From TrEMBL:
One of its GO terms (cellular component) is cytoplasm. The active site is at C120 (nucleophile). Residues 9-131 form the MsrB domain. Binds 1 zinc ion per subunit. The zinc ion is important for the structural integrity of the protein. The gene is msrB. Gene3D superfamilies: Peptide methionine sulfoxide reductase. It comes from the Bacteria. Belongs to the MsrB Met sulfoxide reductase family. PROSITE patterns: MSRB. HAMAP family: MsrB (MF_01400). Pfam families: SelR. This is Peptide methionine sulfoxide reductase MsrB. GO terms for biological process: protein repair; response to oxidative stress.
Amino acid sequence: MVDKLTLSDAQWRERLTPEEFNVLRKHGTERPGSGCFLGTKTPGTYVCAGCGNPLFKSGTKFESGTGWPSFTQTVGPDSVAEIDDRTYGMVRTEVRCARCDGHLGHVFPDGPPPTGLRYCMNSVAMKHVPEGQPLELVRA
C-alpha cells in the first residue's frame, strides 16, 4: 500500500500544468488521438503525472484503436483505484491513481488476453520513465 498524497487545489495548480490539472484533478479528458503516448513503444514504466506512482509497464500497452493509450493490466493491485462512474448517462469504471486520487481514465471489459481488460488512459495524466531509470515518487 502506498502512502496517500493529499494537496489543496492551490498546491496542485502549482505542481501541474493546466492540462494535467484539468484531467487529474477535475476529471477532464484529452481529445482522442491527441495524447503524446498514443503511439509510444519505448520500454519503461508509466507513472502518475501528479505524484510519480507507478501505474503501467510498457509491455502491457496495446493499440486499441480508441484514440487513447491502452493497457491490459496495472503494475500491481495497489497502483490504481477503480470507482463507479455514472456521469454523462453512462455506466463506466473510472481509474484513479491510488496514491494521489488523480483521474487517469477508465477501464473496460473489452481488452485482449490475458486479462480481457482495456485500461484507457489519458496521456497527460502520466509520465514515462524509460527502462533502467529509477522510479521516484514525487514528495509532498
